């Protein structure tokens, strides 16, 4: 019996949708894409049920570190 959408196409489409959903929830798009290829709709359930992580405030160390202003000593 032929199916309208092959199983591989369905699994890949679910993985793409999960990648977009993961990005909206502040999670890694690539990691969830790969997890979705393995778990499929179960990964979708996990993304929807788990709370999004709190955003981390930006720090100066990511931009080369904080430098003290050079002044009179």
TrEMBL record:
Q: Identify the domain of life.
A: Bacteria
Transmembrane spans:
30-50
Keywords recorded for this protein, A-Z: Membrane, Transmembrane, Transmembrane helix
Asked whether the keyword Transmembrane helix is assigned, the reply is yes
Q: Could you tell me what this protein is called? A: DUF805 domain-containing protein
Q: Which organism is it from?
A: Arthrobacter gengyunqii
